[in-house]
Amino acid sequence: IGDIIVDFSIGKKEAFKVLISNDYGLLGNLIYKYVLFGCKEIDDLILELDYKILNDAFSVFGCNIINCSHLYSVKRYMIYLINLDFRCVDYISNILANDKDFWRDVVLKHPSSLKKLGIHLIDDKKFMLELVKLNPKCYLYIPIKFHSDYEITKAAVTNDGAMMLYSSFSMRSNKEIVKLAIESFGNALSYV
Questions:
Q1: Which of 138, 143, 141, 177 is nearest to 161 (CA)?
Q2: Which of 22, 48, 123, 133 is 20 to 30 A from 2, alpha carbon to alpha carbon?
Q3: If phi over 0 gives left and psi between -120 and 50 gives alpha, with beta otherwise, what is residue 124?
Q4: What is the three-state SS of the chain?
Q5: What is the pTM of this model?
Q6: Quick check: 153 and 188 in contact, CB under 8 A?
Q7: How do the pLDDT tens digits run along the chain, 192 residues long?
Q8: Are 95 and 73 in contact (CB under 8 A)?
């Protein structure tokens, strides 16, 4: 490429790492354009890379990793971005917004990201229950109608009694829910 000779016999992945680890100016812009506008071979290579390397490459070339819109449907890529900055959840594709496996990974660290939950999942009671079991803080961000659901509220307060504060009045009046909340968080009694 230009005056730069790259030995691809070391493997595409390793050669790409060499290219992005050095500030080659125009080459960096070329790589960036491939990433930005899409190129199946480069996309596949990027998906094999450690995203820290990719992020470093973007930094070297003064580019923003968020600009890779054609990769917004790639689960690993978006989870990586969200872990860097949870606000990146705003960029997820509709495909990921409705992908249960994606949400199972994301809510472990970022339950507030549920604000972007897809329309096909928003009414799925079984899935809401599963998410609350994974991380009781999800209870704060699931649709309010589920705050009156016995099973979901029970799962939330069993793991974090403080979630009783966000439950419906009927759930805060339920003796079993109150008992479970107090067992998990002694101060939950003050929420009754």
A1: 177
A2: 48
A3: beta
A4: CCCCCCCHHHCHHHHHHHHHHCCCCHHHHHHHHHHHHCCHHHHHHHHHCCHHHHHHHHHHCCCCHHHCHHHCCCHHHHHHHHHHCHHHHHHCCHHHHCCHHHHHHHCCCCHHHHHHCCCCCCCCHHHHHHHHHHCHHHHHCCCHHHHHCHHHHHHHHHHCHHHHHHCCHHHHCCHHHHHHHHHHCHHHHHHC
A5: 0.68
A6: no
A7: 444 455 555 555 565 555 555 544 444 555 555 554 455 555 555 555 555 555 555 554 444 555 556 566 778 778 877 887 788 888 888 889 999 999 999 999 999 999 899 999 999 999 999 999 999 999 999 999 999 999 999 999 999 999 999 999 999 999 999 999 999 988 887 877
A8: yes
Dig out the tokens for 170 from the structure. Answer: 């009927």
Length of the chain counted residue by residue: 192
